[in-house]
Specification:
It contains 10 helices and 9 strands. It has helices at residues 13-19, 42-57, 73-89, 108-117, 128-140, 182-195, 211-214, 219-231, 249-261, 288-293, and strands at residues 28-29, 35-36, 97-101, 120-125, 147-151, 169-174, 238-245, 265-273, 276-284. The longest helix has 17 residues, at 73-89.
């Protein structure tokens, strides 16, 4: 994990339950004498992440319907810390504004980005009901002046219709849908549950998630290449476009496409969580002169 990640040494359940007593219902000592929770139980996972947000990030209200994705805080804040390194190396330290593409019902990246570094956010979403839930979270935490929510009217669009031609932001970030369709998502979930020794209905998976959150026609690759294409129409509006990329084989095709689209920089930032290795891909269309003037 990143050196700035508060959660690199695991969870202090004694401190967490003292600050969030409701988490106590899910905490137990396993056969190895370790204090933990059942990570296959969606209610336990939600209670843990709610407690982490409250204790470490000052987020007192974080309520959303259980059908939506419950993002794991350590992994989500890791992306934020990688972005901060990218900004630092690019000498971008003031007036940071980040677009979160597909903020979901939890508004998690804007909450963490503001709490960790004081960044301003634009958060977009195609699901109007999810956006209303995020708005309630933003409102109840008093973050209206820090996080602006925008509705994406056209599901096929990612940047078009959200950023206008005169707007300028520091970066865009995104956690794309992984799957091509519902069947692929269910198959993957059943595999995860089997690995955890569970045989429950896959829709009780520990991360939940709606269709709009989990799959996209053509899967992650199709989404990413649409994102790349749309970013090429806003070359001077954003210093760094970025995205999580779960499948390593997609990186090579992204790089080839971006070269054709005129990208000037392409970076792969390793995102490591325990035994799981993922990556954030970042690209820019700015030339050296434009970067210096930013």
């Amino acid at each position: 994990m990143h050196k700035n990640n508060t959660h690199s040494k695991g969870y202090d359940f004694e401190v967490l339950t003292a600050n969030s007593p409701e988490l106590s219902d899910f905490v137990f000592t396993n056969n190895f004498g370790t204090t933990t929770i059942d990570f296959a139980n969606p209610k336990a996972v939600k209670a843990l992440n709610t407690a982490l947000l409250k204790l470490y990030y000052g987020i007192d209200y974080w309520e959303f319907p259980d059908v939506h994705l419950c993002p794991p805080i350590p992994g989500r804040v890791e992306y934020i810390h990688l972005l901060n390194d990218l900004f630092h190396n690019s000498k971008l330290q003031k007036d940071i504004t980040v677009l979160d593409v597909g903020t979901g019902a939890t508004c998690i990246y804007p909450l963490l980005g503001y709490a960790a570094y004081g960044w301003h956010f634009i958060a977009s979403e195609i699901d109007n009901q999810a956006l209303k839930t995020s708005k309630q979270i933003v409102d109840k935490n008093g973050l209206n002046s820090k996080i602006e929510l925008r509705f994406q009217k056209t599901p096929q669009d990612i940047l078009t219709g959200i950023l206008n031609s005169s707007e300028r932001i520091t970066a865009a970030m995104c956690n794309p849908p992984f799957y091509k369709n519902e069947a692929e998502a269910i198959e993957n979930t059943e595999r995860k549950l089997k690995g955890l020794g569970k045989v429950e209905d896959p829709f009780t998976r520990n991360f939940s998630g709606t269709a709009k959150e989990l799959w996209y026609p053509g899967g992650e690759k199709a989404f990413l290449h649409n994102y790349l294409y749309q970013s090429s129409f806003l070359k001077t509006n954003c210093f760094w476009y970025t995205s999580l990329v779960s499948k390593k084989e997609h990186v090579k095709t992204m790089q080839a496409s971006l070269k054709k689209l005129g990208a000037t920089q392409f970076k792969i930032l390793e995102l490591s969580l325990g035994n799981k290795i993922s990556r954030v891909v970042a690209w820019s269309f700015l030339n050296e002169k434009q970067q210096k003037k930013w």
